[in-house]
Amino acid sequence: MIEKPTFYGGIDRVIRYPGGFPLGFVDDNSEHEAQLIHSVRIPMPAGAARLALNQVKVLHYALLRPKAQAAKARMYAAIENLAGARHLLARRQLYSSQKDYSLEGPIEPTPSRWLGAWEQAGIDMRTVSDDPPHWQDFEVLRLFAEHGTRRFWLDDIWDADWESYRQEARRRGIDRLPERPVRPPPAALRWMMKAPDLGYQALRALRSRGARPVSAARPTNFLDSPAHVHA
Question: Which residue ranges make up each domain of the chain?
């Protein structure tokens, strides 16, 4: 198990999560039990011993690319729509365009030693590109071409300018795109679907305030020297 702090709002702050993430595996011929999406990266056989590599930190850059993060959430929502893996409101909650990631864990200053050695080696740890459209946007456009857009009208994916993305994809020579302009669902429908979203976000914020601080659950013996970065 390895701790994976997520940069939040800039390089100088991180969200820290309890317990760590399973990111390494000693091969014992266990099979990987894959899910449609969100699979654990490695096999996790029941009863297997777990080792906490407390000196290792995987620095997670995902939230420093909010447009890419949003594109990823939209793609996940579309995939789960087609697979029937999660009902509509659950999809809108999990992949909300207004998701407040600050509720996921305590936000702390980034220890300077996490970045210092990398920067001394001449590695730019602070510049992050986030120019849309991202590849996930093109995958959603392909799903539009295959299944139509109405299938996805109720999902929270319409904060993107899909028609401009379609035009950009055509300029890049990307195939299997919608042949006609992509038009969003009626505005009234979009606003109607926002009501349960706002209610859920308010409830989630209240629960977060009343919960025990997440930092208390994090192992106290985590050291602070990173070994890897992850986007």
Answer: 6-230
